[in-house]
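Bumping my old thread because nobody answered last time. Still need a sequence for this structure:
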């Protein structure tokens, strides 16, 4: 599949079959992520792969985090629906910036700018994962609802850096239509 076709055909998949992802495909996706460009070639990413046998623990932690937020009167958005997606997906990859600090901790200006560069780099790695999955015939979902259980998931994964997102992967059990996009005139301006 050529790059533009992969970009145009990629969709956010929220229903997965339970089929196991072959190890060579999973390794290819993770390799693609590690080949992303990064500021000063710092490669500020760590990937924690959760497979089916650890899925129940991950889902339990997500549910606990959501219940804690609700108990504090905080909105959980679409996190409850996201749990169902993560429960279906054969693989979920948590993506961390090991150089980042937790969002609630103080940041000096240097750290803030470093975090901005690193988050952009991690975003490129995640996009590479999504496009590699598309090329390999797999569905994917970029997930930020993991913030509902940030501390519990971070402790469980054993990572100390900043949790950026998760990506669920598997064979799609749906074929979503393309979502509407803003017209190019609304997002591009030439000088």
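Sorry it took so long. Here it is:
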């Amino acid at each position: 599949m050529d790059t533009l076709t992969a970009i145009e055909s990629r969709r956010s998949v929220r229903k997965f079959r339970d089929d196991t992802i072959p190890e060579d495909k999973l390794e290819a996706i993770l390799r693609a992520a590690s080949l992303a460009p990064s500021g000063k070639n710092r490669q500020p990413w760590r990937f924690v792969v959760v497979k089916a046998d650890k899925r129940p623990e991950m889902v339990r932690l997500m549910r606990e985090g959501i219940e804690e937020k609700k108990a504090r009167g905080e909105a959980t958005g679409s996190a409850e629906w996201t749990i169902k997606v993560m429960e279906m997906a054969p693989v979920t990859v948590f993506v961390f910036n090991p150089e980042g600090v937790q969002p609630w901790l103080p940041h000096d200006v240097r750290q803030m700018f470093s975090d901005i560069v690193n988050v952009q780099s991690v975003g490129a790695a995640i996009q590479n994962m999504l496009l590699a999955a598309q090329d390999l015939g797999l569905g994917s979902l970029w997930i930020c609802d993991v913030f509902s259980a940030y501390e519990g998931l971070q402790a469980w994964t054993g990572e100390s850096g900043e949790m950026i997102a998760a990506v669920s992967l598997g064979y799609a059990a749906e074929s979503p239509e393309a979502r509407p996009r803003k017209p190019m005139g609304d997002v591009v301006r030439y000088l």
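Residues 109-135 form the longest helix (27 residues). Let me know if any region looks off to you.
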